[in-house]
Write a structure and sequence with these properties.
The complex is a heterodimer of chains A (399) and B (219). Chain A is mainly beta and 399 residues long. Chain A contains 1 helix and 39 strands. Chain B is elongated, with a radius of gyration of 20 Å. The chains are: A mainly beta (399), B mainly beta (219). At the A-B interface, helix 1 of A face strand 2, strand 3, strand 5, strand 6 and strand 7 of B.
């Protein structure tokens, strides 16, 4: 009896040691104080009779930012020109009624941000549905899947605006259902196989998307990025976002990152995200080898992930604008690449803490999006584990 | 801590002296063991009404005192063995708290004081190296002491929970009275529930790897 117990204990200990997986946190950080709000508008000028989505972000002591669109109180200085609804799902959605200029305010926990908004009378000249399709090259949507379409209007004078929630979406022959208004506007759900047309209409202007509703079956899932022989290597303490592509029996393929279930086995070495917004996000915890799997129904794709104990030695910052020059109020995306002690490199854009050398000239959010505020030169800094990119400084010029 | 190690070494040297002849076929009898512990707390998920978060700690230290009885051949089935009552304390410093938005600096201590009833089976093969394997069950008082996150008060509370451990190691019998103990323990508790500074509560997870160096004195 004791002998059996002893062997059981031997087998149990490695399992117990794997129980150190902290898991992906779901709680918001309540300790870092909110220091300011920032409104980001979809369009500077809004066509009368349309809607425009305003979003507000809370900046928490330069540590991180959090979208507060749903929690903020939205106020228009002149509701007869631009008004906000209190309906669920419409937070920050401004409805442009009449021409004029208003101030849009978003308030949360004693902080208020304001931006001007201009409503103008504009005449729609064309409408485009995305993703693009044609009669010869239709958008393939397998039964059992959905596809989000958007509509962008171009007005006389050249201004463009997202009109996804303003157009009337319709199915020409009823082979699919499509959402309208606040109810999942532009989201197509196939009902029966066959060719179909999706029609968007606004102010008498129409656009058509061509669909092929296929009874194709998912046959394979591939995970990207992948290195040779489906092996990925990450340093412990870092994270990386993976995508899953579904391959169907009619040779079509589509991104199914948000639809698959991500998992790792054995657990403890890394975690895989499945929460909205973090689908496919892999966090490397401790050195070891584990299998990353993306599963949808009975089909799965997998790859081997090796987490190394390499330590970070250098961080290099790059900017999407290769000449590192942007205008005031323009933005550019910064990326961080880490070099580790085993001489491997890895994208650390999701892991580093972003900052700028001078917050008056430019700011950078937690996603590495840099915004020019005033003319001058400023260093864009990425920091992780006491390693900073300042040893090879990346200087941005704001003009 | 250093004083404890020096004490261990002093007693060990005494044990190696000629006065303590090598004769490691001792029979049943009581013993006392003093242990120094190196403790690594596993990053564990804590759960609250508003979601989960992770707390991370630096490696820490601890100590244990065990009073037991060596059953020798009376230990069933496995050769020989012993039972003991072990009081221990281990402390680790809180360094990071990980939330949805990422990790931020944290400070404070987690201290676990426990009283466990352990049993260890020993495998005697005629040499002075005696491998052993066993487990224990008991009570632990887990204290989150003056914990802060990003400089803000987080928790300062304690809770009593069921504790357990599994362990293995090897004893080096330097005389019929003294045995060096080099071992490993996996020590865990059920989730203690702490009150946060804001009045809400959260269930923390505590489990740790422990390396131990001990000295056992048999009477």
């Amino acid at each position: 009896m004791i002998r059996r117990l002893a062997w059981f204990l031997c087998a149990l200990l490695p399992l117990l040691s794997a129980c150190g997986d902290g898991g992906t946190p779901t709680r918001e950080n309540p300790f870092v104080p909110l220091t300011s709000l920032e409104i980001r508008a979809a369009a500077g000028s809004i066509a009368a009779g349309t809607t425009s989505q305003f979003r507000v972000f809370g900046l928490y002591s330069g540590i991180f930012e959090r979208e507060l669109t749903d929690r903020a109180q939205w106020i228009s200085s002149e509701p007869t020109i631009l008004t906000f609804s209190d309906l669920p799902g419409e937070a920050g959605l401004g409805k442009a009624l009449l021409p004029g200029v208003v101030t849009v305010s978003a308030s949360y926990q004693g902080f208020t941000a304001q931006v001007p908004a201009t409503v103008t009378v504009m005449v729609l000249s064309s409408l485009v549905i995305a993703p693009a399709s044609s009669l010869e090259n239709p958008q393939v949507i397998p039964l059992g899947f959905t596809q989000q379409f958007t509509a962008t209007g171009t007005f006389q004078g050249g201004a463009t605006q997202d009109l996804t929630r303003d157009v009337t979406w319709a199915s020409a022959a009823g082979q699919f259902s499509v959402g309208n208004g606040a109810d999942q506007a532009g989201l197509v759900t196939p009902l029966e196989p066959g060719d179909a047309e999706l029609i968007a209409t606004f102010q008498g202007v129409t656009a058509t998307a061509y669909l092929s509703l296929a009874s194709a079956v998912l046959s394979e899932i591939t995970i990207a990025p992948k290195l040779s022989a489906n092996r990925m290597t990450m340093a412990q303490g870092t994270s990386q976002r993976l995508t899953a592509t579904g391959h169907f029996t009619n040779d079509s393929q589509r991104d199914i990152t948000a639809e698959v279930v991500w998992s790792v086995s054995p657990t403890g070495i890394a975690t895989a995200g499945n929460d909205p917004g973090s689908e496919g996000l892999i966090e490397a915890l401790i050195p070891g080898t584990t299998s990353v799997k993306a599963t949808l129904g009975s089909v799965n794709g997998s790859g081997t992930l090796t987490v190394t104990n390499a330590f970070l030695t250098e961080i290099e910052v790059t900017l999407a604008d290769s000449d590192a020059v942007i205008a005031v109020n323009d933005t550019t995306q910064a990326s961080a690449t880490g070099t580790f002690s085993d001489l491997t490199t890895q994208d650390l854009s999701l892991d580093v803490a972003w900052s700028t050398g001078d917050g008056v000239i430019a700011t950078v959010n937690s996603a590495g999006l840099v915004r020019g505020l005033a003319a001058g030169e400023v260093e864009i800094i990425a920091t992780l584990d006491a390693i900073t990119s300042s040893t090879t400084p990346k200087i941005l010029t704001v003009q | 801590m250093i004083r404890s190690i020096l004490l261990l070494l002093s007693v060990a040297l005494l044990g190696l002296s000629p006065a303590f002849s090598l004769a490691w076929a001792a029979g049943p009898g009581p013993y006392v063991e003093l242990q120094g512990l190196g403790t690594y707390v596993l990053a564990g998920q804590s759960d609250s009404a508003t979601g989960s978060f992770n707390l991370k700690y630096d490696p820490g230290y601890g100590g244990a005192l065990a009073i037991g009885y060596d059953l020798a051949e009376a230990y069933p089935d496995f050769g020989q063995g012993r039972v003991e009552l072990e009081a221990s304390s281990r402390t680790n410093t809180l360094t990071k708290a990980e939330f949805k938005e990422g990790s931020v600096a944290a400070d404070g201590e987690i201290r676990v004081e426990s009283l466990l009833l352990n049993t260890f089976a020993e495998y005697h093969r005629g040499s002075n190296l005696v491998p052993y394997l066993g487990f224990g069950l008991g009570y632990a008082r887990v204290t989150m002491k003056q914990a802060t996150v990003y400089g803000q008060p987080f928790a300062d509370d304690s809770a009593g929970v069921l504790a357990f451990q599994g362990g293995l190691g090897v004893g080096l019998e330097v005389s019929d009275h003294l045995t060096f103990d080099l071992g490993y323990r996996f020590f865990g508790t059920l989730k203690p529930s702490f009150k946060s500074a804001d009045g809400s509560s959260f269930d923390a997870k505590y489990s740790s790897h422990n390396a131990l160096l001990g000295l056992r004195v048999r009477f």
